[in-house]
Amino acid sequence: MKYEAHIEVTSLPGVLDPQGVTVERALPALGYANVSEVRIGKSIRLVVDADNEDAARRQVDEMCDRLLANPVIEAYAIELTALEQV
Amino acid sequence: MSVRVAVVVFPGTNCELDVVHAVQTLDGTAELVFHTEQSLGAADAVVVPGGFAHGDYLRTGAIARFSPVMTAVADFAAAGGPVVGICNGFQVLTEAGLLPGALRKNAGLKFLCQLVECRVETSRSALTRLATPGTALRLPINHFEGNYTCDAETLARLRDDDRIVLRYVDNPNGALDDIAGISNERGNVVGLMPHPERASDPLLGSDDGVVLLRSFLDAASARSAAA
After folding, report:
1. pLDDT of residue B227
2. Cα–Cα distance between A26 and B69 in angstroms, integer?
């Protein structure tokens, strides 16, 4: 069974996100003075072939810990969608 | 016998020849070791130089960490061999888990290329054993991701165990606690953002990096003599 994983990587709460801070400072210049807590991250999509959703999630979780995110500074969230069998 | 320094080269590394030149001017011998190698040969010391290993894809150092040569570097470090990661090399060593923490984008979101003053904080590390703590060195930095960070517990450990090797006198990139360089517990593995090899001749604007490189070669030669 194939699953599409959408992984969102963001900086850990409390870790300075210089890009988020800069964008947050830029938005009021366009008139959006009511914006706060801007965080900028990465979006990764991949397809994994696994026996079931649990197995797929376990694998993607491991990929995130080992490569896709750096647990020292980044958090990640995984969204899995089963792809229709062709 | 002169000290043999292995200089690791990943696709995208660009400071390896500067390191080779600086090592040679200090009477060491240097050999380039490509990232696909499984062995470092008969090296007495290892330098992971600066550049953009594997294009800095995903995160700086993230892909380089999986290169075959990194297993050999980790073994060499575990055996007490002197290893220094400079700039991108520092990023590679943190991703590889040989040094704690991580390097984030500079606080001002600018690529920085300038001479900065760094204070030697300890002579306990392989890179500073001949340096006098408190000395200010003028060294070039050349990075976008030099903003050192780690959790509070790690920072406390780095301070308590005298593992902060260099601090910026005037913090250019937002690094936590002004950290420019750190070492592992034993002091044999060091990572730093400034480039000592580019401050190895008065012609380059500063030769303050020489004491660091000399320390590093001295650490290697002391270890080889003891073996």
Report:
1. 77
2. 43
A72 with B105: Cβ contact below 8 A: no
Taking alpha carbons only, the member of B25, B83, B13, B97 closest to residue B53 is B13
Please tell me which of the candidates B58, B100, B107 has its beta carbon nearest to residue A18: B107
Structure ipTM: 0.80
Catalytic pick from B87, B95, B145, B150?
B87
Which segments of chain A have a pLDDT < 70?
A: 85-86
Predicted model pTM: 0.92
Q: Which candidate in B95, B121, B145, B197 is catalytic?
A: B197
CATH of domain B4-226: 3.40.50.880
DSSP class of residue B201? Answer: B
Contact B109 A19 (CB under 8 A): yes
Domain residue spans in chain B? Answer: 4-226
d(CA B108, CA B123): 31
- How large is the average pLDDT for residues B84-108? 96
Q: Which residues of chain A does B58 touch, with a Cβ-Cβ cutoff of 8 Å? A: 67-68
- The CATH H-level superfamily of A2-82 is Phosphoribosylformylglycinamidine synthase subunit PurS (3.30.1280.10)
Per-residue pLDDT, B43: 96
State the Cα torsion B69-B74-B76-B82 to the nearest 10°. 110
Q: For chain A, where are the E strands, in sequence order?
A: 2-11, 42-49, 74-82
Q: Where are the domains of chain A?
A: 2-82
Q: Which of A11, A15, A18 minimises the CB distance to B109?
A: A18
